[in-house]
Amino acid sequence: MKHIKILEEFLTEKKPNVKKNVKSINKKIGKQIKKAEGFAAKSKEDSQGPEVKDKMSASLNRMKMQLAQIEAQKQSVKKNIEIQKAQVRTAKKKDKANDKIEKKADDTKEVDNTK
Total domain count for the chain? Predict the structure, then answer.
C-alpha cells in the first residue's frame, strides 16, 4: 500500500517543464527578431524619403527596432534563468539522493558490525 501511495504522489506531482518553457521563450525571441528586421527595413525605406515626416518615421521605426531587440534580449535572459533553475533543482535532487545512499551505506555497515 505504501508503494502505491508514493507512486500516486509521484505521478500527480506538478513538475516544471523546462523544455516546454524554453521552446515557448525561443518562439518569442524569434518573433521579436522578425519584428526588429521589419522595423529596420521600414526605417531604411523611410529614411531615403525627401520629406521631414519620412525622416521622423524612420527615426520612430529605429526606436521600435531597438525596443524589439531589447525585448529579445530580455527573453533570452528569461530562458537562461529557466535553464539555470532546472540545473539547480537537479543538483539538489542529486545531493539529496547521495545523502540517502550514504546514510543507507552507513546503516548497513553498522548492522554488519554488530553481528
Answer: 1
